[in-house]
Amino acid sequence: MKPKIVRTVESLRREVARWKADNLSHAIVPTMGALHDGHIQLVREGFQQADRVVVSIFVNPTQFGLKEDLSRYPRDEEGDVEKLAAEGVPLIFAPTVEEMYNLNAATSIHMEGPAKAGLEDKFRPHFFDGVATVVAKLFIQSQATAAMFGDKDYQQLMVVKRMAKDLSIPITVFGVPTHREDDGMAMSSRNRYLTKSERSQATAIYKSLTQAADKIRNGKNPQSATRAASRSLTTLGFKVDYVAARNAETLAVPTNTTEPLRLLAAAWLGKTRLIDNISV
User: Fold this and answer.
1) Which CATH number is 267's domain given?
2) Tens of pLDDT along 158-181?
3) What are the CA-CA distances from residue 54 to residues 60, 146, 200 (Å)?
4) What global pTM score does this model have?
5) Is position 181 within any domain?
């Protein structure tokens, strides 16, 4: 059975009100569509946390910069619906830009804390304000009690958790482990931009992070290990934005050897920007 698609907040609220009347809980999986197996894993985790799952499909313009790929971002609503139908998703929220952002709207969210860590924000300065604003709207609109986000976008996960906490939104944000291809590459909608040769080469990001993590576990200084990973990627033809070791809870630069660490990387391969991260 195909999911029901609603495109207005009023329709979304009407559907979830029926679930609430039947004492059924629901989770939300926010996406920009072009769904892959990583998104499907988020849906499955959503069903572990709630009776129903609503998936939002919305390519959010406020998180794209002037020179970023909003116009060419992959869209495949028909294919997305088929994938979600196979998982038993009952409801898809696919609003228009006009529905999500009223032309007279005067409110948006400005993030500090994990949104100002010198990682993604250094290269995409308006990104997390856009993410926080649209995700807060989705949380409030859907009235869900659980939300599922992938660990692959780790800084985004930290930002969303902080936003929900700071605004006292009654929802639990769950981080779901990165879903990977057999060769270790993190699944992403943007992977389809890669040529065949680039796709083979792209596994170097995960391999470099893994090697750096091994060095750190064996006593090497985290900054030295990440610098070596960055040099390795550059030698292989990547344009590296960052390879960094950060506190896994705050994203601050680590100051001692007892902190939980996360290694994060972003690099361009041809015209495609790839990100990944792993724990240490």
Assistant:
1) 3.30.1300.10
2) 999 999 999 999 999 999 999 999
3) 17, 10, 34
4) 0.94
5) no
